[in-house]
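I am hoping you can look over what I have pasted underneath with an eye to the fold:
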Amino acid sequence: MKTTITINLGGLVFHIDDDAYEMLNTYLIAVKKQFVSEDECNEIMSDIEARLSELFTETLGQKRDVIMKDDVLKVIKIMGEPEDFMDEETKNEPVDSASWKSKRKRMNYKTTKRLYRDPDNRILGGVCGGLSAYFNTDPILFRILFILISLGMGSGLIIYIILWIVIPEATTTAQKLEMRGEAITIENIKRAVREEFENVKRNMKF
């Protein structure tokens, strides 16, 4: 008989056995250690926990209620080991837990590209920005297309409003990565959050 612990991860409640909890907690501590001195630490960790909760939800599905040690190992392989995203000057430093001393190759995990509205590249609702990210084109092309449809058939604005309602907005870092078809790993979350902070800093300069 094993002890089961209830945790709140990324706003969702999970049941996890004690061995799995110890591994997950050690992993999160090792991950946070890499960002603790950065301004973006809280944002990065929040996005990481949100992504972990999504992965655990997918892993458990409707078949099981309790996260096991193998589930944690699977998720870690997807997200990446702490040593995978250490800065160059800290890569040679030992990681806190012996659990991470043995090198394990990360799974070749690629996220499926999904269509979202892009809040960072929008004039109105971010529909054209989202379409451009999905099809890897310039958003100006879609903006011109909607203008031409509006002028020619008069239905461009109606189509745009429908897409605005139907297509969800990419609000989290994970969704923005998914919008661009990038793997949702800790390394990519860290990079995306840093880029967003830098953009905010540049926009605040007068």
Observations:
- The chain has two domains: 4-107, 127-169.
